[in-house]
Design brief:
Blueprint (H helix, E strand, L loop, with lengths): L2 H12 L4 H6 L1 H7 L8 E4 L8 E7 L6 E4 L28 H14 L4 E3 L13 E5 L6 E5 H12 L7 E2 L1
Parallel strand pairs: 1-7
Antiparallel strand pairs: 1-2, 2-3, 4-5, 5-6
Helix pairs in contact: 1-3, 1-5
């Protein structure tokens, strides 16, 4: 991992308790710019005997937010743009991206088969942005609560990894 990546991870850690400051921090967002077309990265259950796919993560195109989707486009359907543009979604507009996890959670509520649940954001101060989510493995039942700052760190580490582009929770 490069020194710049370590500096970015340190800055994310500094701001982890203030999600609003983290999301709009100019230094963090400048450092994330080269990664906005990275991925999306597949997220898997962290239980070694399971490793069930849970979701796909990519960065928002303007803010320091990790967005998620249940599915990504197949290679033959991809325009090769990377990031959120590889999500299976009719309108991958950056502001629209916040709704991806909400649609996942609603579908989970209705069908009982999706993996992500939204969490409350007490004191977050960021209207309309879900900064905490919980993934539940459909195979083993393991739960993975995550704040946006944690997801950012996991995404940055995966983007700078020389061995894997998956995120194991």
């Amino acid at each position: 991992m490069t020194g710049l990546a370590r500096d970015l991870l340190d800055r994310i850690e500094e701001l982890a308790d203030d999600q609003k400051a983290l999301i709009y921090d100019a230094e963090v967002n400048r450092a994330l710019d080269p990664l906005r077309t990275a991925g999306p990265f597949q997220v898997r259950c962290g239980k070694p005997s399971c490793r069930q796919p849970l979701s796909w993560w990519a960065l928002d195109q303007q803010a320091a937010i990790v967005l998620s989707a249940e599915r990504r486009k197949m290679k033959k359907d991809s325009a090769g743009l990377g990031g959120i543009y590889e999500f299976v979604d009719p309108d991958p507009h950056p502001a629209h991206g916040f709704a991806l996890s909400e649609r996942e959670a609603m579908a989970e509520h209705q069908t009982g088969r999706k993996a992500v649940h939204l969490a409350e954001n007490p004191g977050c101060g960021v209207t309309g942005i879900t900064t905490r989510r919980t993934w539940t493995c459909g195979k083993c039942g393991q739960k993975y609560p995550r704040k946006n700052s944690t997801m950012l760190r996991e995404f940055v580490k995966s983007a700078h990894s020389t061995t894997t582009r998956e995120i194991i929770l």
